[in-house]
Write a structure and sequence with these properties.
Blueprint: H1 6-28, H2 37-45, H3 47-50, H4 57-67, H5 71-85, H6 101-106, H7 130-138, H8 180-183, E1 193-195, E2 198-202, E3 207-212, E4 218-223, E5 234-237, E6 243-249, E7 252-257, E8 272-274, E9 282-284, E10 287-291, E11 296-301, E12 307-312, E13 320-321, E14 328-331, E15 336-340, E16 344-345, E17 362-367, E18 372-378, E19 394-400, E20 403-411, E21 417-421, E22 427-429
Antiparallel strand pairs: 1-2, 2-3, 3-4, 5-6, 6-7, 7-8, 9-10, 10-11, 11-12, 13-16, 14-15, 15-17, 17-18, 19-20, 20-21, 21-22
Length: about 425
C-alpha cells in the first residue's frame, strides 16, 4: 500500500488548502460579510464598501473575540502583545509619572460660574447671524435639523390648533415581520434629512432609503454591509441645482447623487474618502468638514475629495479616549466649529493619566479659517465618572434683558446648561 501515492498526496494538499482557506476566512473576514447582500452592497457603494471584509486589521479583532472564551489563552495573547508591541495606556499597570499629583491638581483651571452677564461690554450693536438663523429654521438638510442642531422648523403647518388632529399618512417597513429577527442588525440613531421634498433615512438592516416625503413612495435605496453613520448625514445643493448626500460608513464618507442614488465616482477614490467619523459632516464654503474618532478635524474639497488639512483637537494628550462622538455645530458666519468630546480612558481609573486630561469631556471651539483651536471649556477635569458630553452643541441667538447674544449651548450629563456668551470668546454664563 502506497501511503504517499499521487492521489493521496493530492487529497492531502487540497484538504490542507481548504483548511487554510476556511481558517483565514474565519480570522480575516468580518461576520457582516457572511451574506449574499455583499453583492448588493458592491452594486450600491462599490468596492470601498466590501474591501474591509478581508484585511489584516480584522485579524486582531477576530482573534480577540475568539480567545475571550479561553481566559488563560486570552491573557497569554495580551502578554505577548505587551512584550512585542508595547502596552496601551488603557492597561492597568503602574503609575507612569510619579511627580507630585497635588501640584498638578493645584495647577488645574478653575472656572468661575456666574449667573447672568459676566462682563460689561456694550453688545447692543452686535451683528447677529439672522440670515443664517432663518436658513437653519427653514431647512432640514443635516441631521439634528441643520448646522445649529436646533431640531426646529419655522413651519406653521403643525400648530397648537391642529396638533390633536394629526393622522398617519404613510409608513414604510424595511424588514418583513417574519424576517425581523434574522435581518435586524442595529437600532437606528441617525436623524433623517430632507432635500427638495425627498426624505432620506437609514434602516436597521443597513439600507439608505430615499422616499417622497409626501407619499412615502420609494425613489431609490442603497444596501450597505455595515451600519451607516450613527450620528447623522448631510445634504447639499450646489449652484447648478445638483443634489448630493454625504454619508459616513465605517471609515469612509460617500458622496451620493440624491436624485438617483448613484455614487459620484470622481469624488475621492471611487466615490468615497477616508475619514473615520460617526458624526454628520458639515459644509463650509467649498469644504467638507469631518470630525473623526481619531480626534481630528479634517477638511476636504467638496468636489474632488482632496484632503486639505487635518488638525488634532488634543495637541497634548496622556490618555486614550476623549473621542468626539456626541456631535458638532457649525457657525458659518464666523467660520467656527464647536465639538464636544468624550471622557478619557480608562474611564474609572486615572492613575496613569495624571492631570486634568485637557480637552476631554469638553467643548472645543475651532476656527476653520485660521485652522486653530480658538478656546476650550472642560466640563469635568480628570473625568472618573463617564461624564462625557454626549449631546450635540446647539447654537442660538439668546435674548437677555432686551439684548441678543450669540451663544453655543451644551447639555451635560450633570444636568447643566452652559451658555457661552460670544462664540468667539471663552466667556460663559449659566
Amino acid at each position: 500500500m502506497k501511503i504517499f501515492s499521487l492521489r493521496n498526496t493530492l487529497i492531502f494538499f487540497l484538504t490542507t488548502c481548504l483548511f487554510v482557506f476556511f481558517i483565514s476566512i474565519k480570522l480575516f473576514f468580518l461576520k457582516e460579510c457572511y451574506t449574499i447582500k455583499i453583492f448588493s452592497a458592491y452594486k450600491s457603494f462599490g468596492y470601498n464598501n466590501i474591501k474591509q471584509c478581508y484585511s489584516k486589521n480584522n485579524l486582531e479583532h477576530n482573534v480577540k473575540k475568539l480567545s475571550k472564551n479561553f481566559p488563560i489563552f486570552f491573557e497569554f495573547l495580551r502578554k505577548q502583545k505587551r512584550n512585542y508591541y508595547g502596552s496601551s495606556n488603557q492597561d492597568l499597570l503602574t503609575i507612569s509619572n510619579k511627580y507630585n499629583i497635588e501640584n498638578v491638581r493645584d495647577s488645574m483651571d478653575n472656572y468661575k460660574y456666574t449667573k447672568g452677564i459676566i462682563n460689561k461690554k456694550d453688545y447692543e450693536n452686535i451683528k447677529l447671524t439672522d440670515e443664517e438663523s432663518l436658513i437653519e429654521s427653514s431647512n432640514w438638510n443635516r441631521s439634528h435639523g441643520g448646522n445649529w442642531n436646533t431640531h426646529y422648523s419655522n413651519s406653521n403647518k403643525i400648530n397648537k390648533n391642529n396638533i390633536n388632529k394629526l393622522k398617519l399618512v404613510w409608513k414604510n417597513q424595511s424588514i418583513a415581520t417574519k424576517k425581523l429577527k434574522k435581518e435586524y442588525k442595529l437600532n437606528v440613531q441617525l436623524n433623517p434629512i430632507i432635500i427638495n421634498k425627498k426624505l432620506f433615512y437609514t434602516t436597521p438592516d443597513n439600507k439608505l432609503m430615499a422616499v417622497e416625503a409626501k407619499t412615502g413612495k420609494k425613489v431609490w435605496e442603497l444596501q450597505s454591509l455595515f451600519p451607516p453613520s450613527r450620528r447623522g448625514m448631510v445634504g447639499f445643493i450646489d449652484e447648478k441645482k445638483n443634489e448630493y448626500l454625504f454619508l459616513p460608513i465605517r471609515g469612509k464618507i460617500y458622496k451620493i447623487n440624491a436624485k438617483n442614488g448613484k455614487l459620484i465616482f470622481n469624488f475621492g477614490k471611487n466615490g468615497a474618502i477616508g475619514s473615520g467619523t460617526i458624526i454628520a459632516p458639515m459644509i463650509y464654503k467649498n469644504f467638507l468638514v469631518s470630525i473623526t474618532l481619531n480626534r481630528a478635524i479634517q477638511t476636504f474639497d467638496i468636489n474632488t475629495g482632496q484632503k486639505l488639512y487635518s488638525k488634532d483637537i488634543h495637541p497634548e494628550r496622556n490618555f486614550s479616549g476623549a473621542a468626539p462622538w456626541g456631535g458638532t455645530a457649525l457657525d458659518k458666519a464666523n467660520g467656527l466649529v464647536f465639538v464636544v468630546t468624550g471622557n478619557p480612558i480608562p474611564s474609572l481609573y486615572g492613575v496613569n493619566r495624571v492631570g486634568a486630561n485637557k480637552n476631554s469631556s469638553s467643548i472645543i471651539a475651532f476656527d476653520l479659517n485660521t485652522q486653530k483651536i480658538l478656546w476650550t471649556f472642560q466640563d469635568v477635569n480628570h473625568d472618573l465618572w463617564d461624564f462625557d458630553i454626549s449631546s450635540p452643541p446647539v447654537l442660538h441667538n439668546l435674548k437677555i434683558d432686551g439684548k441678543f447674544y450669540e451663544v453655543v449651548i451644551a447639555l451635560t450629563k450633570q444636568g447643566m446648561y452652559f451658555y457661552w456668551k460670544e462664540k468667539q470668546e471663552n466667556q460663559y454664563l449659566i
